[in-house]
Amino acid sequence: MPHDLGPYLRLVALDGTLSQVGHLGSLTVEALDLLVGRKKLTSAGSGGRTQTAAMLGFCARHGVTADVEAVPSAQVNEVLDRLSRNDVRYRFVLDLADLDA
Question: Residue 9, class by beta-carbon neighbours within 10 Å (0-12 exposed, 13-18 middle, 19+ buried)?
């Protein structure tokens, strides 16, 4: 299923730019979401170390965090099954604490 960028573009200010970093797979973009507000959409494979550090600093200063679902690594097969069924609300994080040292 394609990712709809419309909700994100509607948050971009007048003459602003939404920069997509990394690969999300298929995307959908309505031209009207770009036309209203004279918005731009750009993309790049990676932001690089400097830009990544700046982004993490911005997130730290403004309290921007990610919603995650921590799952013991023993449940990795369940996680893969849920991914294949698109039954994922948050980013999965495998907790490796249950692995033998």
Answer: buried
Do the Cβ atoms of 1 and 86 come closer than 8 Å? yes
d(CA 32, CA 73): 44
pLDDT in tens, 22-70: 777 888 999 999 999 999 999 877 778 888 899 899 999 999 998 999 9
Question: Is 0.85 topped by the overall pTM?
Answer: no
Q: Which residues of 36-47 are buried (b: 16+ CB within 10 A; e: fewer)?
A: eeebebeeeeee
DSSP code of residue 72: E
How many whole angstroms separate alpha carbon 49 and alpha carbon 1? 31
SS3 at position 55: helix
Give the max Cα distance, the chain.
56
Rounded to the nearest integer, the mean pLDDT of the chain is: 89
Q: If you search the block for the tokens 């995650």, which residue do you land on?
A: 68
Distance, CA of 76 to CA of 92 (rounded, Å): 10
